[in-house]
Amino acid sequence: MDLLPLKPFSAELSNFRKEMDRLWKRFFGDAPFAPGFLEGWAPTVDISETPKEFIVKAELAGVDPKDVEVSLSGDLLTIKGEKKKEEEDKDAEHYFAERFWGTFQRSFKLPASVQEDKIEATFKKGVLKIRLPKVAEAQHKKIQIQVK
Fold first, then answer.
1. C-alpha 106: how far from chain center
2. Which of 24, 51, 63, 92 is the most buried (most CB within 10 A)?
3. Are 100 and 26 spatial neighbours (Cβ–Cβ below 8 Å)?
4. Cβ count near 122 (within 10 Å)
5. Sign of the torsion formed by the C-alpha atoms of 37, 129, 102 and 69
6. Cα separation of 62 and 119, whole Å?
7. Residue 12 is inside which H or E element, if any?
8. First to last CA, the chain
9. pLDDT at 49 over 70
10. In the prediction, which pLDDT does 2 show?
């Protein structure tokens, strides 16, 4: 029978903590939080593709459409804007607050070229919808297989 050294439980926790710190640094660097946590809030986005276009939907509840800017530079689509803080009642006590406000910016690299002059952006019920038609060369074409 081998003798094993007695390790107090606190030593095991210390080793676990060191391993978790090492993994955290591996993924996020030396910052105590992931970059997205430090930069404020960012709207959630859905991106889909059809044979003829890309569709981007950004959830912007509480954002005035006048405070949103959409731009395309080469193959980089950028959505930026600001969600303004609402007036607060000075006499109110806040027991819980988790809504975000402030400036935001999201950028996405498009996998194919789009027709810049035909891009459409609409805002309805707090959702920004951007339709980006593909150029003819980028559209998916189904090729029929012939059996001989």
1. 6
2. 63
3. no
4. 10
5. positive
6. 24
7. helix 9-28
8. 74
9. yes
10. 60
**What per-residue string of b and e applies to 12-43 under the rule 16 or more CB within 10 Å gives b?**
eeeeeeeeeeeeeeeeeeeeeeeeeeeeeeeb
SS3 68: strand
Q: What is the pLDDT of residue 78?
A: 94
Q: Name the class of domain 40-85+101-137.
A: mainly beta
Give the residue extent of every domain in the chain: 8-39, 40-85+101-137
pLDDT for the residue numbered 3? 61
Higher pLDDT, 35 or 86: 86
Between CA 23 and CA 133 the distance in angstroms is 42
User: What phi and psi values does residue 115 have, to the nearest 5 degrees?
Assistant: -80, 100
> Sign of dihedral through CA atoms 134, 136, 137, 140?
positive
Give the Cα-Cα-Cα angle 33, 36, 42 (nearest 5 degrees). Answer: 150
Which tokens go with 91? 């006499």
Q: Which residue has the higher pLDDT, 27 or 31?
A: 27
Structure confidence by residue, pLDDT tens digits, 62-115: 899 999 999 999 889 999 999 887 776 666 776 666 777 889 999 999 888 899
Note the pTM of the prediction, 2 decimals: 0.64
